[in-house]
Write a structure and sequence with these properties.
The longest helix has 53 residues. The two termini are 14 Å apart. The protein is mostly helical and 416 residues long. The chain contains 16 helices and no strands. The N terminus is likely disordered. Helix 5 packs across helix 15, helix 11 packs across helix 12 and helix 13 packs antiparallel against helix 14.
C-alpha cells in the first residue's frame, strides 16, 4: 500500500500541473457564479413573496433534473469528451444568467419565469457535476490524487465563501448586477474549460443498455463503504441543512440586511477553508471512517446551536463549525470514491454521487421550508440537527466496513 504521508512530502505542488490549475479555475468560477445566483434568487424570491415555502420550492425545482437525468448524464460523461460536456454546460448557464438580468430589468414580478430558468440551469449542472469530478484524476499523477481531491473540494468551498459575500454585497445595487457578474464568471469558467487538454475518449464505446445505465448504482451497492459514505451525506444534509432558512434568520431573527445574509451564507465556507488548509498540511492515514462519522455528528450539534442562537456572532461561528465539519467529511468521502472507482466508471458513479448530493441539498431546502412553515425557522433547524445525530448513530451500526476504514486509498481497485 502506498505511504500517503511520504507522498505528501515528496511530490510537486498541485498547482505545478497546468491541467489542474485550469480545472481548479473552472470549478471556482462556475461555483462562485452559482453561489452568487443562489443568494440573489433567494433574497429576490423572499422579497417578492415573503413565503418560506417559496424558498423551499427553489430547492425542489433544482432537484427535479438530477432525479430524472443523473443516470443518463453518467452514461454521457463516460462515453463522450468530458471537456466538451463542460463547455456545452457553460453555454447553457451563460444563457440563463443573461436571461435573469433581462427579467429583473424588464419584468415587475417574474417569479414563475425565475423558477423556469432555475430548472434549465439545474439541467446543465446535472451534466457538469460528474464531468468535473471525473476529470480530477486526469489532471495530476495518481500518487497525489488524494491531495487533488482535497484541493478540488476546497475550490467548491472557496466559492461558497466568495460567492455569497459578493452576492449579498452587490445585491444592494440590484439583483441584475448580481446576475450580470454571474454571467462574467461563467464566461471565465468556459474559457478555462476550453483550455483544458482533451482527455482520451474510450476507444471502445459500450452499447447503451439498461445494464450500463445502472452500472454506477450496481457498483456502489456492492461496495458497502462507498454506499455508506454517500448515503450518510444524503441523509445528514437532507435533514440538517439550514441554507434555505437563512433569509428568515437574517431578516426576522437576527435582523440583519442582505449584506448580513451574504455573511451567513459565506460562514460555512469560511470554516470549510480553514479545515481545507489544515488538510493540505496533513494526511488522514488512520481511522478515516470514524473521523468522518465524528465530523457529521459535530455538523448536527452545530446546527442545533445555530437554531437556538439570537446573537449574530454566535450564529456565524456555528455556521463556520458546520462548514468545517462538512469539509472534513466531504474530503474523506470523495477520496474514498475516487480511489475505489475505476476510471471507465467514474462518470456513472459520480453522476449517482451528484444525484445524492443534489437530492440532499435541494430536497433538504424544500424540507426546511415545509418544516419552517409548521414549526418556525428555529424549530426546523433544531429538529434537523437532532435528526443528524440520530442518523450518525444508525449509520455507525449499519455500515461497519465504513466505520473500520483506516485511510481513503484502502479501497483502491486492482486496476487504475
Amino acid at each position: 500500500m502506498t505511504d500517503l504521508s511520504a507522498i505528501a512530502k515528496s511530490t510537486a505542488p498541485l498547482f505545478h500541473y497546468r491541467p489542474f490549475r485550469l480545472l481548479f479555475t473552472t470549478r471556482t468560477a462556475a461555483n462562485t457564479a452559482n453561489q452568487m445566483q443562489a443568494v440573489a434568487v433567494g433574497w429576490l424570491i423572499y422579497d417578492l413573496t415573503g413565503s418560506a415555502l417559496a424558498l423551499g420550492l427553489i430547492g425542489l425545482v433544482q432537484f427535479l433534473p438530477p432525479l430524472a437525468l443523473s443516470l443518463i448524464a453518467g452514461q454521457v460523461v463516460d462515453r463522450s469528451s468530458r471537456r466538451l460536456i463542460l463547455i456545452y454546460c457553460y453555454i447553457v448557464e451563460l444563457i440563463v444568467s443573461v436571461a435573469l438580468v433581462l427579467l429583473v430589468a424588464f419584468t415587475d414580478r417574474p417569479v414563475e419565469l425565475i423558477f423556469a430558468l432555475l430548472l434549465i440551469n439545474a439541467i446543465a449542472r446535472t451534466f457538469e457535476a460528474p464531468a468535473l469530478q471525473s476529470l480530477v484524476p486526469s489532471t495530476v499523477p495518481r500518487e497525489i490524487l488524494l491531495q487533488a481531491v482535497s484541493a478540488h473540494a476546497s475550490a467548491g468551498k472557496m466559492s461558497q465563501l466568495i460567492g455569497p459575500a459578493l452576492g449579498g454585497l452587490f445585491y444592494t445595487f440590484g439583483a441584475g448586477v448580481d446576475f450580470g457578474l454571474c454571467a462574467l464568471l461563467i464566461v471565465t469558467a468556459g474559457v478555462a474549460s476550453i483550455l483544458l487538454p482533451m482527455p482520451p475518449v474510450p476507444a471502445q464505446r459500450l452499447k447503451v443498455t439498461w445494464t450500463t445505465l445502472v452500472a454506477g448504482i450496481d457498483f456502489i451497492w456492492h461496495e458497502p463503504a462507498v454506499l455508506g459514505a454517500m448515503s450518510l451525506d444524503l441523509a445528514a444534509t437532507l435533514f440538517g441543512g439550514v441554507v434555505a432558512l437563512l433569509p428568515i434568520f437574517a431578516r426576522d431573527i437576527l435582523q440583519i440586511n442582505s449584506w448580513g445574509f451574504g455573511l451567513l451564507r459565506a460562514a460555512p465556507a469560511t470554516g470549510a477553508l480553514i479545515v481545507a488548509v489544515a488538510l493540505s498540511r496533513t494526511t488522514i492515514t488512520r481511522r478515516g471512517g470514524l473521523i468522518m462519522f465524528a465530523a457529521v455528528a459535530v455538523y448536527g450539534m452545530a446546527t442545533i446551536a445555530f437554531g437556538f442562537s439570537r446573537n449574530t456572532g454566535l450564529s456565524l461561528a456555528m455556521l463556520m463549525v458546520v462548514g468545517g465539519a462538512d469539509m472534513l467529511s466531504t474530503v474523506i468521502r470523495q477520496s474514498l470514491i475516487q480511489f475505489a472507482t475505476p476510471d471507465d466508471m467514474r462518470g456513472r458513479v459520480f453522476a449517482v454521487n451528484a444525484l445524492f448530493v443534489n437530492t440532499s441539498s435541494q430536497i433538504g431546502m424544500f424540507e426546511s421550508g415545509v418544516t419552517a412553515e409548521g414549526f418556525g425557522a428555529v424549530g426546523s433547524a433544531v429538529l434537523g440537527g437532532l435528526a443528524v445525530l440520530a442518523i450518525v448513530l444508525l449509520w455507525t451500526w449499519r455500515f461497519p466496513r465504513l466505520r473500520k476504514v483506516e485511510r481513503p486509498d484502502q479501497l483502491a481497485p486492482d486496476r487504475p
